[in-house]
Amino acid sequence: MVSRTAPTEVLSVVRGDDRGVDVAAAPGRSEPAVVEVAPARGTGAVLLVGGLAGAVVSLVLLLDKLALLADPTFVPSCSIDPVLSCGTIMRTWQASLLGFPNPVLGLLTFPVAAAMGALVLGGVALPRWAWWSLQAGTTAGMLLVHWLIVQSLAVIHALCPWCMVAWVAVIAMFWAVTVANLRAGRLGGASAPLRRHGWGLAAWYLAIVVAIVATFPEWAAGLVGL
């Protein structure tokens, strides 16, 4: 009588940095069983939508900036009132932090994020270095955005509506990528089963709204008819 060997305990593992799915064989079974599913495609959707939105507003802002350079009397499309005034911000040195208009950075980076998001959304397994690059890029973008927020509120005393769209997009992309990397254990530690993390993002946005209202209380009251 020929004895059969016991089935292999673990057949294969598809790490979370590939498709967001951990696969292992359950004891005594020949087919793999799903252990944990990380919402990698959700992260892809955030990157795609955020990247496209950021690219569009960056293009609009760059075109308005070029028009303003050609004609100092030009009124940008997002100059609505004394507070929502892109023209005021475009005339400051903060609007050209690296010696060229900030929207150029957006046009160089947002399409890349959108393309990687489309790949993830389509089920493509990105290598670990790609996720690390997304982490580095979104972290740098998040830091830049918050520096610009402080400058807008505390120094320039004006807001740019299109810039605020970019703020929302960058923060969402940073949050989604960070959560995905923590869940997959790509940031130097074990994978973290994060749940209900959306509340943290909502609180982040709320803090920015509160800062805007505190800076422009009369303007904010006028928006709601007070």
UniProtKB/TrEMBL annotation:
Alphabetized UniProt keyword annotations: Disulfide bond, Membrane, Oxidoreductase, Quinone, Redox-active center, Transmembrane, Transmembrane helix
- Kindly give the Pfam families that the UniProt entry links to this protein: VKOR
The UniProt record lists the keyword Repeat: no
Q: Does the keyword Lipoprotein apply?
A: no
List, alphabetically, the CDD domains matched. Answer: VKOR_5 (cd12922)
Q: Where in the cell is it found?
A: Membrane
Residue ranges of the TM segments? 45-63, 104-122, 129-149, 155-177, 198-216
Residues covered by the Vitamin K epoxide reductase domain: 40-181
Q: Gene3D superfamilies under this entry? A: VKOR domain (1.20.1440.130)
Q: What is this protein called?
A: Vitamin K epoxide reductase family protein
